[in-house]
Specification:
This is Palmitoyltransferase. It is built from ten helices and 13 strands. With about 425 residues, the chain is of the alpha+beta class. Among the domains are: about 160 residues; about 80 residues, SH3 Domains (SH3 type barrels, Roll).
Length: about 425
Amino acid sequence: MGTFCSVVKFENLQELKRLCHWGPIIALGVIAICSTMAMIDSVLWYWPLHTTGGSVNFIMLINWTVMILYNYFNAMFVGPGFVPLGWKPKNSQDSVYLQYCKVCQAYKAPRSHHCRKCNRCVMKMDHHCPWINNCCGYQNHASFTLFLLLAPLGCIHAAFIFVMTMYTQLYNRLSFGWNTVKIDMSAARRDPLPIIPFGLAAFAATLFALGLALGTTIAVGMLFFIQMKIILRNKTSIESWIEEKAKDRIQYYQLDDDFVFPYDMGSRWKNFKQVFTWSGVPEGDGLDWPVREDCHQYSLTIEQLKQKADKRVRSVRYKVIEDYSGTCCPLNRGIKTFFTSPCTEEPRIRLQKGEFILATRGLRYWLYGDKILDDSVLEGVSRIRGWFPRNCVEKCPCDAETDQAPEGEKKNR
């Protein structure tokens, strides 16, 4: 009993709460429907188990399901790995190259970012994935990518079973006229009758599962190719975005220098091995990383600090002129605002007339920014940021977009 209690820890039981989210519920539901229908169709109506091919086919279906679920739960429960609370660089002088996280009370290690959903700084954060209800990062990047590979492969196999099942069962039941196509579901199959007749309900269920399998193959397959593209360059989705912003900053201020991504090892195979290893444990400790010869450990973090300073310069101060409740798609803000709501899990912020917002980016009908807090706000709140409609605010005339550039940089005119 004592051994069992030492294995099943309270923290592990807490992790089970990750399943109580729309993402895992939908993902596991799709896996369950496609796998179950593929096995039922194979055994009852397409490829009987008493044949060698049918047995191999059934074992392969079970194998796909086990491998998909194994990597899915690995990605969910192993997690990305978090920067230790209160972490500091070994050399205290290096802290000037790092950002400080007030929530974690620690410096952000190279390649780490704070996730608002997880409320922790994540090592080598790629993104927060709603389908696993966890971040994809240093420790689970390989499992997550393998799941993205195996899910489409399993769905392709299942889709083949669904198509062949409907074909063999409807072969003698279809009749074509000049202007009509009739299906006689009562007609018997040429082969010996199955244990359970392939009726209308079975046909509808198989067709529905086929739609799920094909949709999953396309959607998840595209995500897999995106992930492999950045893995072979030893980047994350966030780092790709940082690199694009670096190029934009250099072009905007007409700088002579060029930003070189420090973690690209110069070989796709070497970059691949940074994530996928035979042991299943990724390279490094998630805090220190190998870099190119012409870069150093803080090349990327220095660029991030420059971009943060540039964002403060480019930000625009707005005053709230109408209240906003913080709803995702507000009906009272106009039809265009309602239908152009940002497709993101980033939060919306509640606004009250008279408050001030510092906007850092925006769309045609929406803005994203930080609320300028006053002393009346509780001490535990460090910042409030999110999306809000443009027609709720007006630009402060005295705080229009500044022409001042960060120190040492000249603005492109």
